[in-house]
Amino acid sequence: MEVEDLYNSMIVSRSRAPEFSGVVADETNHAEGNNPLCGDRVRLTLRCEDGLIAEAAHQTRGCAICIASADILAEAVAGQAVRNALQMADQFVLMFENEDAGGVLPGNLQIFLPLRQHRARIRCATLPWIALKEALAHDAE
What we know:
The protein is an alpha+beta fold. It has a single domain (3-136), classed as Sufe protein. Chain: A, CATH 3.90.1010.10. Helix content is 43%, strand content 19%. A hairpin with a 2-residue loop joins strand 2 (40-49) and strand 3. Helix 1 packs across helix 2 (64-77). The radius of gyration is 14 Å and the shape is globular. The mean pLDDT is 89.
């Protein structure tokens, strides 16, 4: 399956039926992101324990790209060390600027690579990841 086809399929399925939508009970970290240009809003809640992200969930309103990105983010960071999740967030944002950066990300995150051709939509995909960095900023210190 071509990356573009996988991108389209994954975006549609994850935006219509997000698997990690909701709020984490007993959250320890949270952050919100807003993109007023297209109306995307995301709220991430996390439960961190002993330097690990035990659970992640999101409440997202906006376009399909933003919803899918938030949902895939929540899946990708659950069980990860905080420092690894922060590195993943940096790499995710960087992959839109640097062609070599996407190769170090898990395959399900690489499905967003076609957005390089749609520069106006990159902010839709990166908004949840920027919120993640904000939510974890204090844990990384």
